Amino acid sequence: MLILDILYYIFIVVACFQVGYYLVFFSQFAFQKETKPEPNNIPISVLICAKNEADNLKDFLPSIIAQNYPNFEIVLINDASYDYTLDVMEDFANKHPNIKIVNVRNNEAFWANKKYALTLGIKAAKNNHLLFTDADCKPISKNWISQMSAHFNNDKTIVLGYGGYTKIKKSFLNKLIRFETLLTAMQYLSFAKMGMPYMGVGRNLAYTKDDFFKASGFMKHMHIRSGDDDLFINQIATAKNTSVCVAKDSFTISNPKTTFKEWVTQKKRHITTAHHYKPVHKILLALFYASQLLFWLSGIVLLAFLFYWEVILIFFALRLISQLIIVWFTAKKLDEQDLMLFIPLLEFFLVIFQLTIFISNLVSKPKHWK
């Protein structure tokens, strides 16, 4: 059949492309040794923007306060919360003199815009070197600030870190969320290692105040509700000014979504920002996802019809081996090795969910900063 012939050649091309993508791009992070610069103890401002995060702040803020670092302040930004977030912040501030509160009220021009709140927090920070995390994030060690700040120097003014999620036993959704996080980290950290940084995650990210104001802050994409982390880094990051920190003491960890509905809503919001990346980044990321989708769909159809099934299985195996080698070394660095046994299943579900979310975004607008 002509259609199966076409699918066969498509499958061969995308399988080779996938193998090449893993071995050329993703190997950049997987096989490189982590540099361990000496701590420099520069003054750091840790910024946490919170909207209705009272309970999370009570649980996670003590891990920030307890950091083993000689010179840091904590800037707590209350983004027009309507719960008792501000009360919790004030209670901590009364006990710890290095905590500063920025209380943001809704502005008519920037209604419920996290970027506006963050901008006010950055202006209020007394130090040039800024370290960002979220109200529901917890550093896994007391050396988080020390590890991240050590990567700052005269040339490196952006530091990309890793933010993982808590492991929940016997939860497929938890594994899916952590696999998607692992794959995303493998992408943005590999590209950064290649000198093509394109994003960071607000759960664990650092840059300088000078860079922020030199770029006019978030003004280029202030109209886009999300993207205070990835869009800003996509705008300002270069091969010369960006460093990667994946020392295990530098990781942060968050509680993941516990229902598919919550997770899909979150991913719908995140995916919309990718449309605003630089063209070269959009092309490379789109090619990878499209090749993933075509690999699975064409491969399954061809196997269903037993069309050159021996060749199809050989290419499936070749691609799987390449993937497992690269992902294993990446997962080992990011402490996600328990996902390895489930990778084919997790990838298939993730590809289908991403397609579903993409289609859903075409017909409905995603929700933004709560």
UniProtKB/TrEMBL annotation:
Gene Ontology molecular-function annotations: glycosyltransferase activity
Residue stretches making up the Glycosyltransferase 2-like domain: 45-178
Pfam families, alphabetized: Glycos_transf_2
Keywords recorded for this protein, A-Z: Glycosyltransferase, Membrane, Transferase, Transmembrane, Transmembrane helix
Superkingdom in the source lineage: Bacteria
Xref: Gene3D superfamilies: Spore Coat Polysaccharide Biosynthesis Protein SpsA, Chain A
Membrane-traversing stretches: 6-26, 283-305, 311-329, 341-363
Keyword hit for Membrane: yes
Family from the record: Belongs to the glycosyltransferase 2 family.
Protein name as annotated: Glycosyltransferase
